[in-house]
Structure formats: C-alpha cells, structure tokens
C-alpha cells in the first residue's frame, strides 16, 4: 500500500486489499455459506408449497453479470418485502438472520485484518481474526439488528393505534393521537435511514476498538450526524474505487470463462455447445419456469443432452462457473470490508480526534512458570 495519507485517497488501500488472498478466502467462505443457507431455505419453503421462489433464482443471479445479478436479487427482495404474506416474511426473516450470523463472523474477520493492517501494518492470520470474531460474535450480530428492532418497535406502536381505531366509536382516538403517530413515524424514518446509512461503520467499530454492539450503533449514528459531508466524500471515493475494482475483476473472470469455453469448444464442437447451452439456460429462468421446482428447471435445461456423461459434464461446468462467480463476489466482500474499515478509522479521526493507528490489540496473557529449584551445592 502507498504511504497512508489519512484522507479520502486512502480508499486506494481497499482497492489493493480486495485482492489479498486471506480476505478473498474469508469472503469465499462467507459466500459459499450464504449460498448454501439461502438455497436451503428457498428449497424447503418452495418444496412444501409456502413460497413460489426456488433456489434456481439465486443460481440464475450468480450466473449473470454482477450488476444484472445484483439487480435481480434486489428485485426479488423488494417483492418479498412488499408481499404481505406471513409465509414469505418467515422465509425472508430466516434468510436475513442467517446471513447476519454468517457475515458477523466472516465480515468481522475481514475488517479485523484490515484494521490492524491499515493502522499498524500488522499482519494477522485467518485463524486469529476468526477467533477474535467468534469471541465477539453477539456484538457483531446485534449491532446491525438493533436499528431494525428499534424501527420495528415504533411500527408496532403505530399498528396498535390502528387496531384501536377498528373498534366502533374509537376512531376519534386515532385523530386525537395522530400527533404521536407522526412522532413515531419520524422516529421510524430517522432510526431506519440513519441506521442504514451508518451501518457501514458498525462492524469496523467492533473490529478496531474491541467495543460492543451498543457502542458500534451509537458511534455509527454520531459520526454520520456529526460530519455528514466527510462521510459522503469518503463514500464517493469508496464507490469509485469499488467500481474500478469490480470492473477489473469481472472483466478478468469473464475473459477467463469465455477463453476456456471457446478453446474447448474448438475441439469439442457442437457437443460442447449443447452442454454450454444447457448451463446458460439455467441463468435465464423466465415466465412460468421461474415458479418451477429446482430439479424441474434442471431437467428442463439438461433435457436436450443425449447421454448421462454429457449431463455430468454440464453439471460439473455449472459447478465450476458458480465457484468462479463466487470468487468475484468474494473480491467484492474483501473490498467492502477493507473500505468499511478505512471509512470508520477516518471518520473516528475526524469526529473524535483519535489517531488511525489507535487500534485495539488483545493482550496475550503470558503463562507464569514457577521458578526452577536451585540445586544445592555440596559443602
């Protein structure tokens, strides 16, 4: 990394850190666990008929270009959040809390490595960073959950007011209490929006300062509200470096896959084209096919393949491509964790005046050995 400047230019550190092997491996572990968790929830709930969306939706998003895949996942999330169905909300809640648990460990480990590396130049291993995060798991987990719980509390209060208004002649209470409802609505928006904007600071707070969930949440709100312009400048710089990082990584990975397909296809011909087409068919589940079960969609895509060995080869190609795509998202996770850390340390310096080199280091208790007995000398 170039010499630390302690301003927005230090976001270049996150760019180079995105290709750090330890952080990419942690990101890959988190991505694999996330995909398995989401697929398991979607498979179970769609299998018992509670929801229509199956695991193929996530698989299709992974096979698509990064921006298109991210937009696809976001659209499905928005559709689920506005569905009004308790079945969908149950599955969505399980997915969200499972992902929070996974990234409380993996995201915490990435930011722990970044905080010590950026601030002090100390190289910490994956084992030590994971051990640190497991010790502080609940702090990592509850920090982003607390604003959600607070906003939900005020939502329920407003909803209870609405229930009271359903009773005959008690509608007047809603009118009399509407100023309070407006106050609760303001608190919902304040807690949710400020919490969402400042959420990037929560995990690095615990990684860099060894603090708890409450301190992480309070600092996130305080820093955003105290120096909003500085925060925006750092975010813009991070977004610029992040876009450059993803463009480079996505281009290299796309060239890698395309070169592999073209060169193998030169020798294998139409046989390979059929298998590649079957894999490509899973990336575009449209119309009624989007509501079919996972195995049904696989059979539809692999149906034209004439032999079992071709089906096996196509399945292997699908696996390899998914892993390669996950590496791309792992690079994104490594960049995000490193950028969050730089963002937090710079904001902490701007607001509190704490030097960026001031990072919490666990004290290692040295084992005190009893003194060795002194041998008596003969007179």
Largest sheet: none
Question: Could you give the order of the helices and strands?
Answer: HHHHHHHHHHHHHHH
Q: From the alpha carbons, calculate the radius of gyration and give it in angstroms.
A: 26 Å
In the predicted model, the low-confidence regions spanning at least 5 consecutive residues are 286-291
Q: What number is the mean pLDDT?
A: 85
Number of helices: 15
- Our estimate of the beta-strand percent is under 5%
Helical content class:
over 70%
What is the number of strand segments?
0
**Gross morphology:** globular
Number of domains: 1
Class from secondary-structure proportions: mainly alpha
How far do the termini sit from each other?
66 Å
Characterise the protein shown here:
The structure is a single chain. The protein has one domain. The protein contains 15 helices and no strands. The radius of gyration is 26 Å and the shape is globular.
Strand-helix topology:
Elements: H1 12-17, H2 21-47, H3 56-63, H4 66-81, H5 86-120, H6 126-135, H7 137-164, H8 171-176, H9 178-198, H10 202-209, H11 213-226, H12 228-268, H13 270-281, H14 294-302, H15 308-352
Helix pairs in contact: 2-5, 2-15, 3-4, 5-6, 5-7, 5-10, 5-15, 7-9, 7-11, 9-11, 10-11, 10-15, 12-13, 12-15, 13-15
Features:
15 helices; mainly alpha; about 0% strand; about 75% helix
